[in-house]
Structures are given as C-alpha cells and as structure tokens.
Amino acid sequence: MIYFLVAIMALSVGTGNVLLKIGSGKPSLLPFSAFPPVNMFVISGGFFLVLGLVAYLALLQRVPLFVAQSLAVCQFVGVIALSYFFLGEQITARHLLGISVIALGIFIISSPG
Questions:
Q1: What are 57-90's pLDDT values in tens digits?
Q2: Domains of the chain: which residue ranges?
Q3: Disulfide engineering: 45 pairs with which of 20, 51, 77, 88, CB 3.0-4.6 Å?
C-alpha cells in the first residue's frame, strides 16, 4: 500500500506539473486574468496536485515523517520522466546519474532496519 501511495503521489504531482507547464503558455479563460493564466490545463494541473497531496497525507498516516518526505522525492523522478515524454524535454547522462542517486537514497531510507 505504501508504494502504491508513492506511485500515485509521484504520478499525480508529475502530471500536475506538466499540465501547469502547458497551461502557463496558453491564454487565460478569464479576460481580466493576465497572470497566472486560468485555463483548463491549469485547473486540471491543480486537481492533480491536490490528488498528490491527498496521497501524501495518506502516506503520512502510515510511515514516519522522515520516511514519507524521503519517498516524496519520487515526485522529482516522475516530473523528469513525464516532462521527457510529454514535453520533449531532454534528459542527459547527468540527469540519469542524479535520478539513480535519488533512487538509491529512497531505497536505503525506506528499507527496514
């Protein structure tokens, strides 16, 4: 259940950030709102960020805070992967090394003992 919550959190926050990025370049639905733009991408992005927050709160009920916060780092990995696939952003060898270090840290902190 813990890893399911982490996956929901990471994917939700990643999706929310991608939608916010897309929406930031689109016109606003409100004529008086220049910044930040209010459009369906931004509204949908906000929904996914709230879903990620709900998953994080559920995670906090199940593990100590330091473990939950360490697992929350998975959000960065989710954002990087989703921005690569949906925004066409580049991932360099340096990024992959950083992701590997993050994954190793998550494994070490979340392992029992």
A1: 999 999 988 888 888 888 888 888 889 999 999 9
A2: 2-110
A3: 20
